[in-house]
């Protein structure tokens, strides 16, 4: 029989145990070992059965056990110490509080998904895990972040396999009352809510749940409330589910509703209002529209409000391909805004213009969320050095007339939250060398270029650590594999072979991630005979653990999963290669430490960053990867191996996969497995151990989320806060009027004449030439522009590369023809073909980049031809 109604019955904790409730509701336990150990000691069996979730644990402990613990003095002393530690952590000064005073009072961080812990399954993959690590690192550093997301009643999905290896999706219902969240309430005890206007006079209501992530509040909006009709209740049903309108409503709720939730939270708690808003990928881009509407309600016009909002907004793009961006039909967007829907006082055409692909190569009828995100943010970044380059190319149409390397998108390479991902055994080994507090600081605050203490760890200790971690992974794999086969319909009597799956002394390779086609899950299967030879080699065998989820609508990805599963089911190799379904945080925390090699073979350059290899590296696992994402930036032979790629023009996909798979097999056969199995005089694989040591000491400090968040603070949040303060209402009006004036006058801006003191096209290195330029500024003056000389080495088509930009100075007033004269030096600082040009850009003290307006004026083709601007 099915129940007609469901309740969540919470335990009544004895008074001495009340701090357990606070500890369970603050998600710091997910990365704080002492807190987890305390909960484990409440009831070890129930702790294991709860999946390591303190809220579920406390809901299952019998009253008799609670009464026993309430009189257990050693337990109460531990409880007092852990609770006191949490209080000190959440109230004391940390890194941020020691920085200069101009840092922002608060930052709002919006993301469609957050991977904090397996006990709060609100993530699908890398974007969510990155967002979770961002919040945790911000908490450790004391950064006053407010996280904003949605609470999905079905999360992403749980994955199982059919008997023939086909992915099957399951959507268990999540009851917020059974999650580590609390409902935000008004002073009278009623649930705090936000509402959005929908077409036809309807409304979308959502209540606000609060997850406390250390010091950082995470606000999560939930539309499954009684005030909504059935359709609106389902808006937050699934992460990345539904059709276009469903996704649009989710993103309106996240962006517009999210800003309203932040305002409600600050009103109810006294938290400082955010000075900076960080849009983590385009899904949350509508937050800028809500902030414009707020300012318009206070009396600003749209253009001025736009300038004010842009000044304090940071946008991070995570995708290297246009297909990864949410795009909506303009008519769908138009229907949801305006007088009969949301933001009624803003002209719908102004909203549409922010997101339309109104540039060469764009789709003029599509509303692009990333394009809107870039237009609404004064500062933008990709998530690795290579991804920054790719993003500048991909979005260069928004800045016509500028070379891609001048497009104002920088990069902050992702990092990972070490306390979450480093195995306890690895931490203990570090703490043994330098003490627990110094080890914790090294993993959270970071700041050093190298961890020198790793050099003092004996080889035997590193070898023993790696074997212990491998052995734990073998046990975990067997347990999960047995559960998976039972779900696939196998009887226990058929599964005796699982006792011999994997070997704790065999080189172990891990591969786990989402399964879009570009990540190439099945590249390892390209030559099955070679792979079998590697798996079954008599002296140097390899074993592989694979996990990954395909999107529910991606049948191509599901076929890749099935292909891999069927290979792993082969009785000849099933003890050497396994596929584990339902990849998530709990599995990952065992998988990364237990592998010796982390494999990554995407199509370059389609991996924006890819952080799984970072988590593996922090546990002493070596990377074997295509030079993409972060690995392209930080690869050294000491840290692992680079898989050669065939990403040149003209290589078809099949042929490219063949080439790169062959390179992968060659590396494994000739370099990786010999290095792992060869023994030095001590009987240990000393050359392998040395690579592990270098990975920990030199790569470890780079891949920390603490380093990443400090970069965001110093390079993006602090400048954005200064801009926000500088662009008050009056300054915003002035800036908007100036931009309008400059755009109108720009057709009259010209470079009319260029002359140099050089009489020949041959010159010596180190020569400085005088440059004199006449320009027409039309209705503008020298204060509105900057005239620059751009110089550098040129290619066979006279394109300037690795350019040097020097501003020229106006000389006197304009002449009788209304032309201004600018002069300055031109340094010939490079040998070989050398060229220069002159250009004019808008200039204003409140712009973050001279490319911001996308306006540039240069010499006409006739002037270039007459000037002979090339020197050899």
From TrEMBL:
SUPFAM superfamilies: UDP-Glycosyltransferase/glycogen phosphorylase (SSF53756)
Keyword line: Allosteric enzyme, Carbohydrate metabolism, Glycosyltransferase, Pyridoxal phosphate, Transferase
EC number: 2.4.1.1
Domain DUF3417: 13-120
Pfam families per the UniProt record, alphabetical: DUF3417, Phosphorylase
Keyword Glycosyltransferase: yes
Catalyzed reaction equations: [(1->4)-alpha-D-glucosyl](n) + phosphate = [(1->4)-alpha-D-glucosyl](n-1) + alpha-D-glucose 1-phosphate
Top-level enzyme category: transferase
Gene3D superfamilies linked to this entry: Glycogen Phosphorylase B
Cofactor(s) the record lists: pyridoxal 5'-phosphate
Role noted for this protein: Phosphorylase is an important allosteric enzyme in carbohydrate metabolism. Enzymes from different sources differ in their regulatory mechanisms and in their natural substrates. However, all known phosphorylases share catalytic and structural properties.
PANTHER family referenced in this protein's UniProt entry, alphabetically: GLYCOGEN PHOSPHORYLASE
Family affiliation: Belongs to the glycogen phosphorylase family.
Name this protein carries in UniProt: glycogen phosphorylase
Origin species: Streptomyces tibetensis
């Amino acid at each position: 029989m099915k129940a007609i109604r469901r309740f969540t019955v919470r335990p009544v904790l004895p008074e001495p145990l009340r701090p357990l409730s606070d500890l369970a509701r603050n998600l710091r336990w997910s990365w704080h070992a002492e807190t987890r150990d305390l909960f484990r000691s409440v009831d070890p069996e129930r702790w294991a059965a709860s999946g390591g979730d303190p809220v579920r644990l406390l809901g299952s402990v019998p009253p008799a056990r609670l009464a026993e613990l309430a009189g257990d003095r050693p337990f109460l002393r531990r409880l007092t110490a852990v609770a006191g530690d949490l209080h000190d952590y959440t109230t004391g000064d940390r890194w941020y509080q020691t920085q200069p005073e101009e840092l922002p009072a608060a930052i709002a961080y919006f993301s469609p998904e957050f991977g904090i812990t397996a006990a709060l399954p609100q993530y699908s993959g890398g974007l969510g895990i990155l967002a979770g690590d961002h919040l945790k690192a911000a908490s450790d550093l004391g950064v006053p972040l407010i996280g904003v997301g949605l609470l999905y009643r079905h999360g992403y999905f749980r994955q199982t396999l059919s008997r023939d290896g086909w992915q099957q999706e399951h959507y268990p219902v999540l009851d917020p009352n059974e999650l580590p969240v609390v409902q935000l309430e008004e002073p009278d005890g009623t649930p705090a809510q936000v509402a959005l206007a929908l077409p036809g006079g309807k409304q979308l209501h959502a209540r606000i749940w609060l997850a406390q992530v250390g010091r950082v509040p995470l606000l999560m909006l939930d539309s499954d409330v009684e005030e909504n009709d059935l359709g609106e209740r389902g808006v937050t049903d699934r992460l990345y589910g539904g059709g276009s309108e469903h996704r649009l409503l989710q993103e309106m709720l996240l962006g517009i509703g999210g800003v309203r939730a932040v305002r409600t939270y600050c009103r109810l708690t006294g938290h400082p209002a955010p000075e900076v808003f960080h849009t983590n990928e385009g899904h949350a881009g509508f937050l800028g529209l809500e902030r414009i509407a707020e300012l318009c309600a206070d009396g600003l016009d749209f253009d001025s409000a736009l300038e004010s909002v842009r000044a304090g907004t940071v946008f991070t793009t995570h995708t290297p391909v246009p297909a990864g961006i949410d795009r909506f039909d303009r008519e769908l967007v138009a229907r949801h805004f305006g007088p009969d829907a949301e933001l009624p006082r803003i002209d719908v055409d102004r909203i549409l213009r922010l997101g339309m692909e109104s540039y060469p190569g764009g789709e003029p009828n599509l509303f692009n969320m990333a394009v809107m995100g870039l237009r609404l943010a004064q500062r933008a970044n990709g998530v690795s050095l290579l991804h920054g380059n790719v993003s500048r190319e991909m979005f260069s149409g928004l800045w016509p007339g500028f070379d891609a390397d001048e497009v104002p998108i920088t990069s902050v390479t992702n990092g990972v939250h070490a306390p979450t991902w480093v195995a306890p055994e690895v931490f203990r080994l570090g703490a043994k060398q330098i003490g627990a507090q110094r080890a914790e600081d090294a993993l959270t605050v970071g700041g050093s270029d190298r961890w020198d203490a790793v050099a003092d760890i004996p080889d035997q200790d590193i070898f023993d650590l790696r074997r212990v971690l491998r052995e734990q992974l073998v046990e975990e794999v067997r347990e999960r594999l047995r559960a998976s086969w039972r779900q696939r319909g196998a009887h226990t009597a058929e599964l005796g072979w699982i006792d011999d799956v994997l070997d704790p002394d065999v080189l172990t390779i891990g591969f786990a991630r989402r399964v879009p086609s570009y990540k190439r899950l099945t590249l390892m299967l390209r030559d099955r005979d070679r792979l079998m030879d590697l798996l079954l080699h008599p002296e140097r065998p390899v074993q592989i653990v694979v996990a990954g989820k395909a999107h529910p609508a991606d049948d191509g990805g599901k076929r890749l999963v099935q292909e891999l599963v069927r290979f792993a089911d082969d009785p000849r190799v099933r003890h050497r290669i396994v596929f584990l379904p339902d990849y998530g945080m709990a599995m990952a925390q065992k998988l990364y430490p237990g592998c010796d090699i982390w494999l990554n073979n995407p199509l370059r350059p389609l991996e924006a960053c890819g952080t799984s290899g970072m988590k593996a590296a922090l546990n002493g696992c070596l990377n074997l990867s295509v030079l993409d994402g972060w690995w392209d930036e930080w690869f050294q032979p000491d840290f692992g191996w680079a898989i050669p790629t065939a990403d040149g023009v003209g290589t078809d996909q099949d042929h490219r996969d063949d080439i790169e798979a062959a390179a992968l097999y060659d590396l494994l056969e000739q370099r990786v497995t010999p290095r792992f199995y060869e023994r030095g005089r001590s009987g240990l694989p000393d050359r392998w151990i040395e690579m592990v040591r270098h990975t920990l000491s030199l790569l470890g400090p780079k891949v920390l989320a603490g380093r990443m968040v400090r970069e965001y603070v110093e390079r993006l949040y602090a400048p954005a806060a200064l801009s926000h303060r500088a662009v008050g209402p009056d300054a915003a009006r002035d800036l908007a009027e100036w931009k309008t004036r400059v755009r109108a006058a720009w057709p009259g801006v010209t470079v009319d004449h260029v002359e140099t003191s050089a009489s020949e096209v041959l010159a010596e290195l180190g020569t400085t030439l005088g440059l004199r330029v006449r320009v027409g500024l039309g209705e503008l003056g020298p204060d509105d522009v900057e005239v620059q000389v751009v110089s550098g080495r040129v290619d066979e088509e006279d394109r300037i590369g690795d350019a040097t930009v020097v501003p020229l100075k106006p000389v006197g007033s304009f002449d009788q023809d209304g032309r201004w004269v600018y002069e300055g030096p031109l340094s010939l600082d490079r040998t070989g073909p050398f060229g220069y040009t002159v250009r004019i850009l808008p200039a204003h003290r409140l712009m973050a980049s001279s490319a911001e307006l996308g306006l540039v004026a240069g010499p006409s083709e006739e002037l270039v031809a007459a000037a002979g601007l090339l020197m050899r």
